Amino acid sequence: MYNWPNSLPFPSTCPSGVRDPLLEDEFQSGDDAARPQFAAPRCMPVTLTWNWMHKTHLATLRAFQKYHRAKLFLWTDPFTGELWEARFSGEEPIKWSPIAKLPDYAQVTVVIKAVNEVT
């Protein structure tokens, strides 16, 4: 299994979360009950954002995504330091927008899904 490219700079932001919906019901007696919908909470997709990324790093990222489109790779969460098996997620896993005042740089957003924590 391949690792996330370590030559890439740390992202500016990487918000993530846990999806753990409950099935809830309220009875005529006024009592309520709840239970988890899934056997285990699911990780929400992580959106990695770079306010500016050099075009050479963007080329590295695009090449990595081209090869790993639906394949798992190892990714270390830059905030927690946890190691995950992850994959690219969504219909637009990488988006970028060139920065007019910095011709060799772009704002970049990547969406990945953490699948399994590696222990």
List keywords for this structure.
two-stranded antiparallel sheet, elongated, 119 residues, mainly beta, five-stranded antiparallel sheet
Distance between the termini: 15 Å
How many extended strands?
Answer: 9
Number of domains: 1
Question: From the alpha-carbon coordinates, what is the Rg to the nearest angstrom?
Answer: 18 Å
Main beta sheet strand tally, sense and closure: 5 strands, antiparallel
Mean pLDDT: 85
Helix-strand pattern, N to C?
A: EEEEEHEEEE
Uncertain stretches of 5 or more adjacent residues: none
**Residue share in β-strands:** over 45%
Shape: elongated
What class would the helix/strand composition place it in?
mainly beta
Helix content: 10-25%
Number of helices: 1
In a few lines, what is going on in this structure?
The chain is built from one helix and nine strands, in the order E-E-E-E-E-H-E-E-E-E. By secondary structure, the protein is mainly beta.
Any overview of this molecule?
The protein has one helix at residues 55-67; strands at 18-19, 22-26, 32-36, 42-43, 46-54, 73-76, 83-88, 94-99, 102-117. It is mostly beta strands. The chain has one domain (18-117). Strands 5, 6, 7, 8 and 9 form a five-stranded antiparallel sheet that branches. Strands 1-4 form a two-stranded antiparallel ribbon. The chain has a two-stranded antiparallel sheet with strand order 2-3. The two termini are 15 Å apart. The model has no long low-confidence stretch (mean pLDDT 85).
